[in-house]
Sequence to fold (398 residues):
Amino acid sequence: MIITRKTFLQTTSLATASFLFPNFLKALTLPEAIAMNGKTLIILQFTGGNDGLNTIIPIKNDIYYKSRNQISIKENDALLLTDEAGINPNLKFFKELYDNGELAVMNNVGYPEPNKSHFRSMDIWHSASDSDQFVNTGWLGRYLDEACHDCTNPTQAIEVDDLLSLAMKGENKKAIAFKDPKKLFDNSQESLYKKLAFDNHDHDHDLASYLYSTLGNTVNNSEYIFKESKVKPTDKVYPTTQIGKDFKTIASLIKSDINTQVYYLSVGSFDTHTNQNQRQTQLFQSINDAVEVFTKDMKENGKFNDVMIMTFSEFGRRVAQNASNGTDHGTANQMFFISGGLKKKGLLNELPDLNNLNDGDLIYKEDFRKVYATVLKRWLNTNDNKILGKDNGYYDFI
Fold:
């Protein structure tokens, strides 16, 4: 059977560019096995550069209010965490998590010589590289390279999206990306796709052989994922927002006891150069509502102590507002950790120091790679030094 590349790509949404790289094809056929420890990590990416100062608010800091006379969150509106800090009023459930000891907040997270480009800074966070290094593999992809040796399905890491992020791409292993298990399965059942996958193909070229082998694996794996997603479908009413649908997909898969240890999803855009408060309100409300239903779902099914949500954004925003009631690209930011299995809760360190800025930007105090090392070692139970290339030390919140 002869088919052009154009026809193939138009036939099914499963035939994305990531399936056409030799390393990806090899990743799906190499023997693999992961050391399962019962823990699940969910990465929630705040795409676009979330404004951390309007997320965890320094309610007693005059510099904050003078720098943001139009967009600051007033002390009376913030949900109080401590005498000095409040949380955005649209994150009401996060306040409940905080009160229950199920939320930890790491402030001032970043890296040396920060880059304010969305694309470059996101690459740095995804690859766990230095700002002057260019690495084509992601920290979670390298986790798959290190930890996987003999599993039957490439489902140890799943991104709930149409495309795979750099964070999830390793040298030999890669996660699998899809939005909807049913759509993934339905597309894999298209007649041309199945014909390509299972007809006999006599090819001398290794890449072509890998391609057809991978197509067959994809059909089988899509069926596996779809069946697992139906084993214990959630009866919770999730929000109809995209993030609500994404968390519903993850909840169904976690409850099915599929072998996935890492889930990745994104929400945005937080690039709030104009009318920041309106946009951040909408985003935080959608995040808050989805996380609330998901958390209650996990608790009712006895999973919450073994599930952790970790949030990050590629950078924060500048301290001073701009002339458009927004903020421009900044540097350091906070990260959230949500789980019933935290060893330390609440604010893990001090609020940003607004008296000590670098040309109007926050100065980072905690390296994000130390956070990654902690998660890899103490949550995923793997060799963080090998994955990250050096000893970064550990925090003690997990």
About this structure: The mean pLDDT is 85. Residues 201 and 208 are 9 Å apart (CA to CA). The radius of gyration is 22 Å. The chain has one domain: 33-187+236-388.
